[in-house]
Amino acid sequence: MAIVPFRYNNAGSAGREMAHRTFVIGESTFTIKQDFKADGKGGTALGFGANVYNSSFVLADYVSQHLAERVRGARVVELGCGTGLVSIACGALGAAEVHATDGDEELLALTAHNIELNGMAETVRTTCLMWGDEEVHRELAPPVDMVLAADVAAFVYESAFGPLVDSLKALSSHPDGEGRSAVVLLAYERRHGKERSFFEKLEQNFEVHQVGRDKLHRDFQEEQLLGSIYILELTPLLTSSTR
Known about the structure:
Elements: H1 12-17, E1 20-25, E2 28-33, H2 54-66, H3 68-71, E3 75-79, H4 85-92, E4 97-102, H5 105-117, E5 124-128, H6 134-139, E6 146-150, H7 161-172, E7 183-189, H8 196-203, E8 206-210, E9 229-236
Parallel strand pairs: 3-4, 3-6, 4-5, 6-7
Antiparallel strand pairs: 1-2, 7-9, 8-9
Helix pairs in contact: 2-4
């Protein structure tokens, strides 16, 4: 029998069904508890965040390999944190504080478990944020230094694409229009045509730059028709009030 080398991109449904998964990112190894259900959900109110998706791993690896110095000492917010892998990785890189946010309060209990499991409770904390919630935006005291999101531009969230863009914009821009904007990175797995409407909204508010595929984890550099992972770097567009 031939031995098939392990690759992160061929874990497939078997990886999602594992109670725990282990990820090597930079010099750190993380163990993440998952809560897969047969319907593909996590058994929670919103339902889709209780497994580690490929885009989360790719984003965490990219930040570790290319932006470690920017993360060290930074204030970081993750939108749609799910199991918390990206936030936990940022904590391990030396972020001053990380807010792992999700709109699913039940899921955040799993996130908190993973934060504790990986020894990041002093740096990484959970916050319930339904995209577009201006009160929570203010509580997070923008602009932060880095805003990260993985697998949020999925067609199952189509009704929330507008509020998602609102959150990305609110957390990355200075309220008074002065000072440096946050680094904003979005990891995306291409799946469905409905997701185009998200990018139309995004491009009305951000300049969008695709990170080169050669900078992604080696298991995800090959581009395919469906299932390819992309990382987008977003720069807030200036409005008439900030020019």
